[in-house]
Design a protein that fits this description.
With 336 residues, the protein is α+β, with helices and mostly antiparallel strands. The protein has helices at 10-18, 34-41, 86-97, 142-146, 158-178, 180-229, 234-263, 268-281, 290-296, and strands spanning 50-52, 55-56, 66-67, 74-76, 115-117, 124-130, 135-141, 156-157, 297-302, 306-307, 317-318, 321-325, 329-330.
Amino acid sequence: MLTEQQIPTPGTLEYRRTGSTRRYHPGYECKWATNTVVHILENREYTGCLVNFKTEKPSYKTKHSVENPIEKQAVFENHHEPIIDRDIWERVQELRKQRKRPNRYDEVGLFSGLLFCADCGSVMYQQRYQTDTRKQDCYICGSYKKRTADCTAHFIRTDLLTAGVLSNLRNVTSYAAKHEARFMKLLIEQNEDGGKRRNAARKKELEAAEKRIAELSAIFKRLYEDSVTGRISDERFTELSADYEAEQKELKERVAALQAELSKSQEASENAEKFMKIVRKNMNFEELTPTLLREFVEKIVVHETVALDGKRRGKLRTQEIEVYYSFVGKIELPDT
């Protein structure tokens, strides 16, 4: 779109201002490259932050720099006036992590990157069955499709899935429009319960990992003493210590990740307000578009079909889909 609208590239603008030809390509003044757009979308400075130590040189002997992970960077919040809302920037980063590559039909499926199997957790892939008179799109479990795990198809037609998600979304937005205060209270209560459960599981895993790290340190000490006194050979000491060191390193990395997740845990009221901003902006819609879907939805979980009459190939069947919304997860509306 930028190329079609003849918007000058950053390199062209730099050339016009300063005369620098570092990123200027004569004849391609408005030809945008993918990596240029990606750099803009990932630029944290647009949210008002100052970011230092984005790169480093592995050694004084090398001239090239490598990008630092975010934990090694120094980020100063509210350094200058933002031009992009923080919530929008964070949502864009989440959306970019989702796979939205064109399929074999050179199309990007409406639910690409959002659909997951309820039993094995695999991403679900789009399939198309086409004859001279009929075309039917559907999604099936990735593990079943690739035979990488023992799972069933979880087959669901795209039109039925679209209708189900659209109905769920309309129910949520309709309830929010009629009972905003009650809806906000509901979101906060459900988010607090879900957050507490997730954090409780993280804390339990963190305690177990820290305990094991302490045990491994004690084992190292005993191994060293046995090596010094000659109770085990040097070869055996090297072999055992390498295994324990690898385990301890993996545990320490997991501990760091768990601590980061716990520290980033957001308040339920903040999450509810973020979701309400999306709801207020999209109260009236007629169809499920990719933009609308990805703004509202974090993921969709598809269960296997169940026969209501108890027969394996019975005609009366039902299939559950769970919609997890951005910031607040699954929303359970009251019956009345």
